[in-house]
């Protein structure tokens, strides 16, 4: 499917080494975008970027830690120098953390929020001058179903992702006059490496997966490319009247009444 507004646009995708980030980078590259992937895992990122280049795409991989402002600033300067001004941003980098509220340390709290929430702001901050100068600039933040509905044991992930949705709405208002759209996608269960590793740790992986699938109205969980498709749509000119929105990509799980 052709998506207007993506061809030759420089798009930065954080957390691009695998999973949703890699799938998004691939979809954008297939539609003619000039893709810059950022990730802390340099080896896995380079393998992903090499695949894009082998397929004929213009792609760049830059090791960066989104929690560190200097790292973000330097990475985006490299993107600008190698590919040109940034025209779109996908804030996908994140960590899924499991802590007890009574035992979590301040350092652990700060570390989780630095990646899941502060990183999105830092990337926007250092891309903002380019985005303001671009025609039809767009930002997509990858939040989570946990921003609205969560389960026990997901503290502080749910809090950080709720904050990311709030950040999305606020920035959509702040940047609308600059012609910059800001939206979020909220994936539910998605067949990423982390989900596969979680299933493998269960006593009965097949039974655990069957239980997960049973609560999804569609009877399956999303593939990373399906989340990437929603991101690509929101970045494109087909979504030119959409800003401040949160789009669930959760197989209908968020619409289900428990019981």
From TrEMBL:
Residues 9-192 form the Ketoreductase domain. The keyword Oxidoreductase applies. One of its GO terms (molecular function) is oxidoreductase activity. It comes from the Bacteria. Coiled coil: none annotated. Keywords: NAD, Oxidoreductase. Belongs to the short-chain dehydrogenases/reductases (SDR) family. This is NAD(P)-dependent dehydrogenase (Short-subunit alcohol dehydrogenase family). It comes from Conexibacter arvalis. The lineage of its organism: Bacteria, Bacillati, Actinomycetota, Thermoleophilia, Solirubrobacterales.
